[in-house]
Amino acid sequence: MQTNTYEGLHIINNSQSIRKDELVVEAPLQININSKAYSVVMRTPNNDKDLVLGLLYAEDIYKKPSSIPFEVIKEEYGIPSIINVTIATNVLGKGYLNKRTLLSVSSCGICGKQQLEDLKVSGDKIVKKVSFSSESLLHMFGPLQKHQETFKKTGGSHAAGIFDKQFQLLTIREDIGRHNAVDKCVGSLLQKNSLKNGMYLLVSGRVSYEIVSKAFLAKIQVIVAVSACSSMAVDFAKEFGICLIGFTRENKMTVYANPSFLQTKVLS
Asked: Would you name the residues annotated as active-site residues?
């Protein structure tokens, strides 16, 4: 269940009326690893396995191609509230040592980190493999918007989509949390063993540090956002070798990091 109906008092000028609106559902999910609580995330129910796999991948806990057992331990009103994943201790990644001890809310992808050092992301800088025109990027938003069913009903969900180098949509996921939508996309491609084909990440909102770090770990080269980019997102994108683009609307966009990906000549 991704939406639910609520009543509200609707006011236009001096006119009042009761109206029913579809609102995006926000619900907690406790993730257990080997029957021990790891984290509680606030998310929109649906594609929970994608979310968990994407989160474990981004947190350097489990990155193997083989599947792992998932078990729903508890449900509330038909919605999973506790899920347990079983991972052999010899394949648990280093990220498991940095256990999240706090609630991770839907607007925060780094809540629960224990210390500043936990924000560091390691790995070799991405080597540029694609170049594109601004027109080709803008055309990708059509397929993304077409599949935003929850947003069409509520206006309250974020979307993320991953495309291949031919600009074909590989996966799209929606969630109340921006970073959750990205985790769900990564998790869905992991289950298909096709994450390596991901080249472009489109997001319906703003981009901050955690979105760039998730893209880097998934080896996605280009991030395209409808809204703004934070200063740390730009700094990290430059360091990681990711082309970061914000304010992508109608016929406009702003390239904040690595403009050499663009086929169009950039004026100095």
From this structure: 108
- C-alpha to C-alpha distance for 36 and 76, rounded to whole angstroms: 20
Chunk the chain into consecutive blocks of 10 residues (it has 268) and report each block's average pLDDT, rounded to whole numbers: 86 89 92 92 93 93 86 92 93 76 56 50 76 88 92 94 96 95 96 95 92 94 94 92 92 90 63
How far is CA 103 from each of CA 32, 179, 183, rounded to the nearest angstrom? 13, 15, 17
Query: How many residues can be counted in the chain?
Result: 268
- The residue from 63, 93, 119 where one domain ends is 119
- Structural domain boundaries, residue 112: 27-119
pTM > 0.70: yes or no:
yes
Q: Counting beta carbons within 10 angstroms of the beta carbon of residue 182, is it exposed (0 to 12), middle (13 to 18) or buried (19 or more)? A: buried
Please check whether residue 7 lies inside any domain of the structure.
no
